[in-house]
């Protein structure tokens, strides 16, 4: 073991019971109910405490199961904007002998400049110490479904090992407060990272397993690690408590390990693919290894056949703690001719198998708690667990959450198993755009991966599911007529509607949708959409293209000349003939007074100029660097740049900077306060040095912080007020779903 010249023991205590700063106005925050919507990539049961269960996600934090409410409780909502890289959870470890101990390895991207940390809790996640570490993590990178990378020694709870993607094996001997790099796991053992894209990378050391029966010097003697690499040894073993390591003889090296489980009788089961996943797998296998006799046995349920279009891999393995001969494994990327992803079950240690979903007796699904799931087949089954306290209860992960069954043993007597969605409390969508119309529904959301939803009831999932006719994988923009909220238009990508393109519209406030008859050009997709105040003219700026306008519901389109590529257009809410746009980096403002047919250029007159940081920003994430109209005022505009907030006055192109606002992550407007005629302003960012969510009722002169340190959610992409209810605000996050907040009325 190499002791570094520095110790990483910077600890910050985060409490989920008391905010660190005084909140100016109390708000009640709730999730807009979608349920799931993202990749839950790990399930972690405590081995001895019944009902103690956690799950991790790739970019939306981690959760603890609350059996009393039958829902998941979020554990990382306190994560601030500057620490938002912690929202990707690489691994979770539990102490087998201390039910209160919880460790989470957090870091979303290995290339991020943000923090990578081990979060240490002695109270099941009520509070954490943040231990910043030098090794890099990739909670939302390739191989994120592998694991678990971190493990606590069952013979000594002080000792924790962490396998990393790029930086070898690390160890703590003091409950995770200090970390040292382990000697003997040399860089020669690990395949180098030669890729520049995280999706293609191998994932380093993907699991750590202790043999609890072996003991040396008050710690486990035998430890296994699995390495995500092909063509060379990928399973290593230490027999002296982690001092020396050597490859396990006879191991398969033609594939990459994805998961492993070590039984009390020292039998090791491993799943393999030819990629870490969720990059595509075309080959895979399942092996049993008798560690006592050094014997390997291939127990693959169905062998992939890539040459005949039946290529796939194996992603997860679990064993029934009460019946060690019972094993289950999951496939990955078994689509098309291969027959669909499945779970295979064996009750004789892998000598024979039964499929759960694709066999003669097929498993059943109950989608009632999250109806949108019925449109999406099961996929990304990268973790699978049989409840250690109940052989009839099992769970598996997908790209949109979790499924569970309580009649698992039906499969052993040729009866179907029934699987329900276990997502209540989990909200992992990415809010790409939010629309609260002046009349009608409460909210319409544009989200990544699962299109979007019409939210008539914020506290229940949309009964009809997500957008259809057309359905998009990503919806990037939504707009409606300010004076005619029945006309709503959305744009995105991944349309499944033949000939419909990547645009859809509704003429009845979102009850029914239909595709347009034509598109600006073949391949039009994503970008932004703006609808005139009366709903008659729509301007679509497809991704990486110039804007196009239609006046006949998409039957005909014509290019808007004179505007730069990727220009976002906004409609005046009072005058149907007016539109505005801004070329932020060129310092130009454009206006149209003929329903978007032509735009006139004006120099953007910003008092003090636009800060260089905003000029040089190229990501334009969320609500940053955008132009906003004022619902009740013709010609009044706001500019929310990353480094400042501006508003115009008597001249349309002359803007004044609002004092005290130093950073903006999202901006929006909502219904005016009872004593005001001007809409309320909402802002996520930094005001007077305080990071938070704020509301102003007096045109930006004064601001009230309306969130607290328990409700920060990492990265906020969108914010908008509700024009129908004063004080209500909607927040779209980068992986923690959508929230709505209402003022808490004082007595």
Explain this structure to me?
The structure is a single chain. This protein is 1% helix and 39% strand. The chain has one helix and 58 strands. Mean pLDDT is 91; it is low at 1-22 and 615-624. The chain has 747 residues and is an all-beta fold. β7 and β8 form a beta hairpin. It has a five-stranded antiparallel sheet with strand order 1-10-9-8-7, with no helix packed on it. It has a five-stranded mixed sheet with strand order 27-31-30-29-28, with no helix packed on it.
Write the layout of secondary structure elements.
Elements: E1 13-15, E2 27-31, E3 40-45, E4 53-57, E5 62-66, E6 71-74, E7 89-95, E8 98-106, E9 117-121, E10 127-132, E11 150-152, E12 160-163, E13 169-172, E14 180-181, E15 205-211, E16 222-227, E17 235-238, E18 246-247, E19 256-262, E20 267-273, E21 284-290, E22 295-298, E23 313-320, E24 323-332, E25 343-346, E26 354-355, E27 364-366, E28 384-386, E29 394-398, E30 401-405, E31 418-421, E32 431-435, E33 443-447, E34 452-455, E35 474-480, E36 488-493, E37 503-506, E38 514-515, E39 528-531, E40 538-541, E41 548-550, E42 558-559, E43 569-571, E44 579-583, E45 588-592, E46 600-603, E47 605-606, H1 612-615, E48 626-630, E49 633-641, E50 644-648, E51 654-657, E52 661-670, E53 680-687, E54 690-696, E55 704-705, E56 716-721, E57 729-733, E58 738-743
Parallel strand pairs: 27-31, 47-51
Antiparallel strand pairs: 1-10, 2-58, 3-4, 4-5, 5-6, 7-8, 8-9, 9-10, 11-12, 12-13, 13-14, 15-16, 16-17, 17-18, 19-20, 20-21, 21-22, 23-24, 24-25, 25-26, 28-29, 29-30, 30-31, 32-33, 33-34, 35-36, 36-37, 37-38, 39-40, 40-41, 41-42, 43-44, 44-45, 45-46, 48-49, 49-50, 50-51, 52-53, 53-54, 54-55, ...
